[in-house]
Amino acid sequence: MKRPDKDMFDPKDFLAKVGAGKQVLEFHKNQHVFEQGDVANAVFLIQKVKAKVTVLSDLGKEAAVGI
Question: What is the phi/psi pair of residue 62, to 5°?
Answer without folding.
Answer: -100, 140
